[in-house]
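Box 3.1. Reading complex inputs
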Amino acid sequence: MDLINEQFGNLTVLEKAGKSSWLCKCKCGNTIVVTTSCLLLKHTRSCGCLYRKSYKQGQDKMREFYKNASPEEKKEYKDKDLISRYTKFSPNKDNKTSKRKGVCFSKSVKRYLAYINKDGKRVYLGTFIHEIDAIKAREKAEQEIIQDIKQEKLNK
Ligand SMILES: [Zn+2]
């Protein structure tokens, strides 16, 4: 399959980056490697800047809320619950649909997505009808990363 020069949301495919992944250029100027399935299923429409933008809007809303809060409310916001309050304003609700780290339910495709952060990048592992399969994929990827790290240490 050749996706070069195809457009997916903010992304334009530049070149093949692996067996089933592509180097894409985002409208914002960043480049990102995306798997074929994520492009075709439209999970990934930007380098992450679309998500960051909506997250920032949530934070701005939170800040405004805080500015107008009473001293009691402010005290309450300062507790360790602060982070979860922040996420409450985040429009990306997909991340809250699974208790498992690295697994979320995408309402747009009605499937579970599994992903893992590798070398500071979010790598999508695929989409799954059942949450348990997404969890398995995530666990497998975790094991692979652990193996890679062990291997690297051995090679040193
Ligand atoms: Zn971008």
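In summary: Confidence is low (pLDDT under 50) at residues 80-95.
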